[in-house]
Amino acid sequence: MTCEFLSDLMCFFFTHSLQRTMPEGPELHLASLFVNKVCTGVVFTGAVAKSEVSKGPQVPFSSDAYRISAVSRGKEVCLTLTPIKSDTKSKLKAEEEQSPMDVVFRFGMSGYFRFTTVEDLPKHAHVQFYTREDPQRVLSYVDARRFGSWQPNGTWQRDRGPCVMFEYERFRQNVLSNLSDKAFDRPICEVLLNQKYFNGIGNYLRAEILYRVNIPPFIKARTVLEGLVPEDQDAKDVKQKCDAAGKRNMKTESPDILSLCHTVPLEVINLGGKGYDPVKADFTEFEAWLQCYYVDGMNSRTDHNGRTIWFKGDPGPMAPKGSKSSKSRRRKGEHDYTNTTKAAKKKRTGTVSKEKPLKKDSGTVKMEDDVPNRRTSTRRQNGNKNGLDAEKADCNKKSITRKKISVTGPQTSKTRGTRRQSGQEINTTVKKTTRSRRKSSTAV
């Protein structure tokens, strides 16, 4: 495979991951192949640069000359930075030389590597390794959505299990020896995304695996995996078929689900670059390979973690309550996010009333009587006019009140005097009534 082919392949899978799902095991392995191919025989120099907008850690590595190699494991890629030793340097300088460093990358939703000239450096290049040549080139880690991460002096995450692609025997043993874990009480479609046991499996891979082995997605994982042997001795002699009740029917001459977790990702890696043009974003080859994920006629449902699973037939007894299955329909421009905007605009315009104003000779506007929401539309149409009228009314009101104050000033003082006089009369009458009551009580 040539460097150009690997670069195109990486662009293809990156664009695919942006439009449908995050990078999975095959994409991470292709990234490691790409780095090894473009960096063969290339010498890098200087310090590792980091973009100012990124919140990731600075890579504390600097060397006059070093090389870069890569290896993948599941959903992780490790870049090894190895300084080139020089015989001309003294022992003192040799002791001060930079030691090799491993930088572990996790791509998140949109991470990938690019190898370009300095002038063509991508916009979202967050980690940059510069070559020692003229003109200078740069290997960069690009992540538009910034969900990815990198760890200087890093190691493989302890919580991640063996790689489903390149550590198959350990992967199979790790799953079948831990079936007592309560994680396997969950539906099989959700357990397949648990990187502790299925390191490298993602959303489109789980749909393809379950479809090929004919297992409903919402069957208890332990029910599906019980009875399988740790070794792959009978992987080609066993086929599992689970119905909605969770029972297994055994048939022959087909791999089991754990075997497919190994072989299906390898199929993606071995697709080659045929049938697509990365410049024109042609996904013909990959879409022709898909049998279930986002394919016409397949059902889709949201699992308990909010991820969408594609499947055929009954979802199974553990399907989330309240979530309804929907048929997948593939159309041109199906991943164009402007479609949702257009739908939202249609919905908004549908709520606006369709009244037609009738103009009178006097210039006023009157709405038709048979149109609903008449008040709302009138307020919208006459909003500016009402605002101007309100301002004029406030000005007129202020001038009128000032006139009233100047005219009615003495009258207010007169009314206050009459109020005081009436209050005194009331107090005298109250005193008289109390005195009369006292006299009557003494007489009795």
Describe this structure in words.
- By secondary structure, the protein is α+β, with helices and mostly antiparallel strands.
- It has 13 helices and 16 strands.
- The protein has helices at 3-19, 25-39, 91-95, 168-176, 188-191, 203-213, 221-225, 257-269, 284-289, 338-351, 374-381, 383-407, 409-443, and strands at 44-47, 49-50, 62-73, 76-83, 101-106, 111-117, 125-130, 137-143, 149-152, 239-242, 248-251, 299-302, 308-311, 326-327, 358-359, 365-366.
- It has a 5-stranded antiparallel β-sheet with strand order 1-3-4-5-9. The protein has a 4-stranded antiparallel β-sheet with strand order 2-7-8-6.
- The longest helix is centred in the C-terminal third of the chain and has 35 residues, at 409-443.
- The termini are far apart.
- Mean pLDDT is 75; it is low at 5-20, 234-239, 241-245, 273-281, 331-381, 403-416 and 439-444.
Write the layout of secondary structure elements.
Elements: H1 3-19, H2 25-39, E1 44-47, E2 49-50, E3 62-73, E4 76-83, H3 91-95, E5 101-106, E6 111-117, E7 125-130, E8 137-143, E9 149-152, H4 168-176, H5 188-191, H6 203-213, H7 221-225, E10 239-242, E11 248-251, H8 257-269, H9 284-289, E12 299-302, E13 308-311, E14 326-327, H10 338-351, E15 358-359, E16 365-366, H11 374-381, H12 383-407, H13 409-443
Helix pairs in contact: 1-2, 2-8, 6-8, 11-12
